[in-house]
């Protein structure tokens, strides 16, 4: 196994305060340990929060991010802090979900990425948002996201 130099990372192994906004957040990447090998990486954030841009009320989502790496992986602590930065950020569900996917694609240039934003209802209606870069590569096992339609989602 190849050991990669991570000395350029600014958060890993350090005490870091949560960024105040997604614009202030820094996403970091590390080299893939298996460049040229196609595999799926999944991150699940079942307690994602943001604010409604009109009312300032909290919105809650269960995010599932799947991607097939190219040369890079997202560094998980930086992803956690990036997602945390939305807690005081006012944006609609669609802006949050698709914006997170676009930011990851910009950083990683993955072979493929999809994000599912399973938003808890406000006003009685859940708004789920799904985005992907295209068709998943052949030969890669991409599991179902398996988040049930809202019925006391858990």
Automatic annotation (TrEMBL):
<feature type="binding site">
    <location>
        <begin position="93"/>
        <end position="94"/>
    </location>
    <ligand>
        <name>substrate</name>
    </ligand>
</feature>
<dbReference type="GO" id="GO:0005737">
    <property type="term" value="C:cytoplasm"/>
</dbReference>
<comment type="pathway">
    <text>tRNA modification; tRNA-queuosine biosynthesis.</text>
</comment>
<dbReference type="InterPro" id="IPR029500">
    <property type="entry name" value="QueF"/>
</dbReference>
<dbReference type="GO" id="GO:0008616">
    <property type="term" value="P:tRNA queuosine(34) biosynthetic process"/>
</dbReference>
<dbReference type="InterPro" id="IPR050084">
    <property type="entry name" value="NADPH_dep_7-cyano-7-deazaG_red"/>
</dbReference>
<feature type="active site" description="Thioimide intermediate">
    <location>
        <position position="52"/>
    </location>
</feature>
<keyword id="KW-0671">Queuosine biosynthesis</keyword>
<comment type="similarity">
    <text>Belongs to the GTP cyclohydrolase I family. QueF type 1 subfamily.</text>
</comment>
<keyword id="KW-0963">Cytoplasm</keyword>
<comment type="function">
    <text>Catalyzes the NADPH-dependent reduction of 7-cyano-7-deazaguanine (preQ0) to 7-aminomethyl-7-deazaguanine (preQ1).</text>
</comment>
<dbReference type="Pfam" id="PF14489">
    <property type="entry name" value="QueF"/>
</dbReference>
<feature type="active site" description="Proton donor">
    <location>
        <position position="59"/>
    </location>
</feature>
<keyword id="KW-0560">Oxidoreductase</keyword>
<protein>
    <recommendedName>
        <fullName>NADPH-dependent 7-cyano-7-deazaguanine reductase</fullName>
        <ecNumber>1.7.1.13</ecNumber>
    </recommendedName>
</protein>
<dbReference type="InterPro" id="IPR043133">
    <property type="entry name" value="GTP-CH-I_C/QueF"/>
</dbReference>
<keyword id="KW-0521">NADP</keyword>
<dbReference type="GO" id="GO:0033739">
    <property type="term" value="F:preQ1 synthase activity"/>
</dbReference>
<dbReference type="InterPro" id="IPR016856">
    <property type="entry name" value="QueF_type1"/>
</dbReference>
<feature type="binding site">
    <location>
        <begin position="74"/>
        <end position="76"/>
    </location>
    <ligand>
        <name>substrate</name>
    </ligand>
</feature>
